[in-house]
Amino acid sequence: MKFTSTVALLLSSTTNAFHTPQYTKTIHTTTTTSSSTKLNAFPSIDNAQEVIDSLSNTIQTFGPTIASDLSNSLYLTTIEQLTTAITNELLPTLLSSPWHTSVIGIFSLGAALNAFINSPDDYSEAPFEPGTNTYSPELASEFYSKRPGMVIKRILRLSTLTFGFNTGILFDWLVLGKLFKDEEYTALRNNEPRRAKEALVLCEQLGPTFIKLGQAVSIRTDLIPELYALELRQLQDAV
Question: pTM of the full predicted structure?
Answer without folding.
Answer: 0.54
